[in-house]
């Protein structure tokens, strides 16, 4: 099409617009396909509210932004081989280096339920994407014919708009903010009760089972709080003692809940008189926490999860929770005793 | 062929295969490696952010460029080329991949431990094979599609339950990992096959397949 | 007469879509015009003759050797000059570089390639543009550069797909002169322009839906018009329309 475009009677930018639109459409179609697949596999269990338009719009803005950068690079450096590399690397480096939530905030998937997109900041980023798109179609090639008249004004305006949009993005502040706590919480009908964000309703049956297992812990040793809350549910962002559901993992939630129960149940211990005493105390606490976690999770650490408290053999804990209750109580008592017996500083 | 003629022929081939773009791309990737290679880039992740060492992914760009250099605006003529072109095409591909390997290795030996250089060289071989396969399937200009797709498992599923890199994670497994070298060998074999496949060979393959499946259709390439 | 190219029971298509069904054709030395409406299968036939794609069935013989593998195709291509309908080019090549590259693609011996390239370029009237970049050529000049790339090395079989598109009347006359001057060559000329066929072809083949619906001399084709009331402004056009079965 190069020749036809070169000899066309339309202003060059009118030819560039549909070309960029076509490229962008490819990206948006792929993005929409991924979104639809995610929606299709989630909607049955998740219910309303699971899909957040703010993040989707932010993602669409990134598609437009990167397609525009590629278009601009392609016009300035017409090499079919170098252009994808230049455009791809520059977008990758730029987004990865300054696209995080702490900087320009172009990341799309990093939204916990207690965080929401700020409309004003989102609009500022979409304006930036549109401005870069305008830059890509209006600015002439360095070696091409110089734009004149209205085209020249549009080119200059697009440069100015990009600069203003960058300033606007900085001025608009972070794209994410803490979400207001819901007026009514979604909780299990159990004792203890476990409360989650409305978007997490599909996990309620699993949390009910978890709460029942928490209630079944030996009462003479374990004191469970009356309620547990997902992070952010009580307002004010992250709180110590509230759990999170990372990538849908009930194990991560059980770890959070287990630590709260452990803190409430373990004897208050003084600082160890020496490092060995402190290590002994922490080892016992970690083991009890891991045991509680495995009990309320209904089994040991799943294979797709890794990490955990240092020095704790998770496989051993997994075996422990299958042993008779009396044996487990004895095991816990030993560790409670060890915490109480340390030499204080 | 006189020596100057030979060089001019090579130059014509190189220009038709965008040698300028290849050189610019290699230079850019090398600069990115030097400046950002050590940076652990934070990428979006459902649980927050995941760190991806930039250097580990750069061989992908080298490999994609090398495979993309098989594209040519003269392809309508090249598809009916005689024997010399195919030999030159193979030599060109070998030369471009070797150049990428030399640039990558030398740069990594300067700024990284030798083990990292070996790992990245192995990654270059793996991605070269995948890029050639991608180029054959989607067209040489789109050689980056399958390599890019391979980044997803490498950055999201690379750990096993114990937090160790899986045996197939060719960007992290140590230099002597036999599994990863096997992947490199398999990828290169697949890539070589992808380059060797022509419409005639594909037709012959289909004919053999049809014969093996007991179909009676007669086809010309025998 | 000895056939430079021969097709026997040629079947060709794309996937399950059959474009050509069972063609037999001997192409001896001389100029053979290939006429037919869009979609008749002319380009597919030329690509098959050029060995760009293997036939789905039947046999193809070039210069007495059956082409049935990649190896034999590569060998045959040394004898084939092919100008595709829509050919790409590296825009920064000079006309000379373009033709030399095409000569190299066909394994034209290096010691002869320079003179062959110069001769080809001059024969299409681009001698003064030998070092002009391809991107600076007009449409007609580009087409002539393409013809030069096809005839370089004096191939035995010359396949030209719409070679006169974009040429002005004087250039078309020059092109016809060039085609007439090619000795010991079997030329297959795919075109929509019946005047070109009348002027240079020894044989005319009319294709429709992947089949030959007429084979004969231009005179025979013109004579077809006498039998029916076909549309057209010249006897050959009317003959062509009659061969296609299109009447007024």
Report on this structure.
The complex is a heterotrimer of chains A (345), B (222) and C (248). Chain A contains eleven helices and five strands; from the N terminus they run ααααβααβββαβαααα. Chain A is mainly alpha-helical and 345 residues long. The longest helix of chain A has 35 residues, at 12-46. The mean pLDDT of chain A is 85. Chain B has one domain (3-218). In chain B, strands 1-2 form a two-stranded antiparallel sheet. In chain B, helix 6 runs parallel beside helix 8 (178-196). Chain B is globular. Chain B binds chain C through residues 1-2, 5-6, 8-9, 12-13, 15-16, 72-86, 198-201, 203-204, 217-222, and chain C through 50-60, 68-70, 73-75, 77-78, 80, 82, 84, 86-93, 97, 100-102, 104-107, 110-111, 113-114, 149.
Itemize the secondary structure elements and their pairings.
The complex is a heterotrimer of chains A (345), B (222) and C (248).
Chain A: H1 2-7, H2 12-46, H3 53-76, H4 82-98, E1 115-117, H5 119-138, H6 150-172, E2 176-178, E3 186-187, E4 193-196, H7 204-215, E5 227-229, H8 250-265, H9 275-297, H10 314-320, H11 325-340
Parallel strand pairs in A: 4-5
Antiparallel strand pairs in A: 1-2, 3-4
Chain B: H1 3-16, H2 19-36, E1 40-45, E2 48-53, H3 54-68, H4 75-78, H5 83-111, H6 114-138, H7 145-156, H8 178-196, H9 199-212
Antiparallel strand pairs in B: 1-2
Chain C: E1 3-14, E2 17-28, E3 30-35, H1 42-49, E4 57-62, E5 65-66, H2 70-77, E6 80-83, H3 95-105, H4 110-123, H5 139-151, E7 157-161, H6 169-181, E8 186-190, H7 194-200, E9 203-208, E10 211-216, H8 218-224, H9 235-244
Parallel strand pairs in C: 3-8, 3-9, 6-7, 7-8
Antiparallel strand pairs in C: 1-2, 1-4, 4-5, 9-10
Helix pairs in contact in C: 3-4, 3-5, 4-5, 8-9
Protein name (chain C): ABC-2 type transport system ATP-binding protein
InterPro entries (chain C): AAA+_ATPase, ABC_transporter-like_ATP-bd, ABC_transporter-like_CS, P-loop_NTPase
Pfam families (chain C): ABC_tran (PF00005)
